[in-house]
Amino acid sequence: MKAIKRIAIVGIGGVGGFIGAKLLLSSNALPVQVTFFARNDAYKNIRKQGLIFESGGKMDMVHPQHLYNRSKGAYDVVIIATKSYSLELATKAYADIMDKQTLVVPLQNMVNAAELVKGVAPEANVLDACIYLISNLIKPGHVKHLGGPGKIITSIPEGSNHKWFYEYMNQAGIPMEGRADALHQIWKKYLFISTLGTITAAHDLSFGEVIKDPKMTHIWIQLMEELALLAQSEGFALGAADIDHFLGFIRDFPEASKSSFQLDIDIGSKGEKEFLVDFVIQRSLERGLEPLTYIDLDNLINRRLGIDV
Ligand SMILES: NC(=O)C1=CN([C@@H]2O[C@H](COP(=O)(O)OP(=O)(O)OC[C@H]3O[C@@H](n4cnc5c(N)ncnc54)[C@H](OP(=O)(O)O)[C@@H]3O)[C@@H](O)[C@H]2O)C=CC1
Ligand SMILES: CC(C)(CO)C(=O)C(=O)O
């Protein structure tokens, strides 16, 4: 690799802060420049004191040389780490940092993030992507990595000139791979996040409370079955083996764990509801499916939010 490559991260919260901190803290010799795009208090606090990053019992202060709150010309790679509900507006706000040479990596818990970004930046090379991570925003400019390797799976980029990016991420301790079945992996992750988010938010239960109560476990399985049917109708073969996998996988989390969607509903915010619950119901109905458990739980969530059902 000869010329300096430029990576932009849009949204410096739980995910963007984790990636940005890992990249800036690594002693990587490759000629790569990393830029943070933040806004509001995140921008002000990082500018004033740096990004506070906690991980593995250690606290680091990270001082990005390149921190902006508005666009700055095209980048080689743009990682978009906003919440799902901010994705479209953020992509519009930063459309001119993505040209036809740019690889775009949206990391939302959505199955159609790439489709949405392509609608706004049709020239860019937009990947299907997801990240396996638990990293929370403590306050703007302060991020705590709680678990998960931060592994990123993407679809395989067109052309052969993006190898440096995968090498760079891996060398910085962010395992990253391009896979032909990336969208299948994203649907599989969504099978877990959407269903667990929905049941924990509707009934205000911790992960432990879902698996210890057979009635609640049964409802969770029904949600997973409904989502697996939707995935199948979209061409992704998810089914009983995946559901069994997640019934075991949830036991790796501390019993008191709560989903981030549940925490949003607890404070009266609808958070990513449109993308975790409404999307499933709407797409299922369009496909002639009957997501009855999702509809029941959506009514409970709406009641918790004080929305008339
Ligand atoms: N946190 C995690 O461990 C994981 C999260 N995910 C998914 O990743 C996505 C991001 O989650 P997370 O990092 O937790 O979210 P956070 O809310 O912690 O971070 C999002 C950040 O993006 C900023 N942002 C939004 N719009 C813009 C913009 N136009 N310009 C600059 N910054 C902007 C927000 O600023 P502001 O506060 O001003 O809106 C906020 O700082 C979600 O879809 C989530 O479901 C996936 C796997 C793990
Ligand atoms: C892994 C899990 C389910 C827990 O934090 C999550 O990512 C979320 O709630 O969004």
UniProtKB/TrEMBL annotation:
<feature type="domain" description="Ketopantoate reductase C-terminal">
    <location>
        <begin position="183"/>
        <end position="287"/>
    </location>
</feature>
<keyword id="KW-1133">Transmembrane helix</keyword>
<keyword id="KW-0812">Transmembrane</keyword>
<dbReference type="Pfam" id="PF02558">
    <property type="entry name" value="ApbA"/>
</dbReference>
<dbReference type="InterPro" id="IPR051402">
    <property type="entry name" value="KPR-Related"/>
</dbReference>
<comment type="pathway">
    <text>Cofactor biosynthesis; (R)-pantothenate biosynthesis; (R)-pantoate from 3-methyl-2-oxobutanoate: step 2/2.</text>
</comment>
<comment type="similarity">
    <text>Belongs to the ketopantoate reductase family.</text>
</comment>
<keyword id="KW-0472">Membrane</keyword>
<protein>
    <recommendedName>
        <fullName>2-dehydropantoate 2-reductase</fullName>
        <ecNumber>1.1.1.169</ecNumber>
    </recommendedName>
</protein>
<feature type="domain" description="Ketopantoate reductase N-terminal">
    <location>
        <begin position="7"/>
        <end position="152"/>
    </location>
</feature>
<feature type="transmembrane region" description="Helical">
    <location>
        <begin position="7"/>
        <end position="25"/>
    </location>
</feature>
<keyword id="KW-0566">Pantothenate biosynthesis</keyword>
<dbReference type="InterPro" id="IPR013752">
    <property type="entry name" value="KPA_reductase"/>
</dbReference>
<dbReference type="InterPro" id="IPR013328">
    <property type="entry name" value="6PGD_dom2"/>
</dbReference>
<dbReference type="InterPro" id="IPR013332">
    <property type="entry name" value="KPR_N"/>
</dbReference>
<dbReference type="InterPro" id="IPR003710">
    <property type="entry name" value="ApbA"/>
</dbReference>
<keyword id="KW-0560">Oxidoreductase</keyword>
<dbReference type="Pfam" id="PF08546">
    <property type="entry name" value="ApbA_C"/>
</dbReference>
<dbReference type="InterPro" id="IPR036291">
    <property type="entry name" value="NAD(P)-bd_dom_sf"/>
</dbReference>
<comment type="function">
    <text>Catalyzes the NADPH-dependent reduction of ketopantoate into pantoic acid.</text>
</comment>
<dbReference type="InterPro" id="IPR008927">
    <property type="entry name" value="6-PGluconate_DH-like_C_sf"/>
</dbReference>
<keyword id="KW-0521">NADP</keyword>
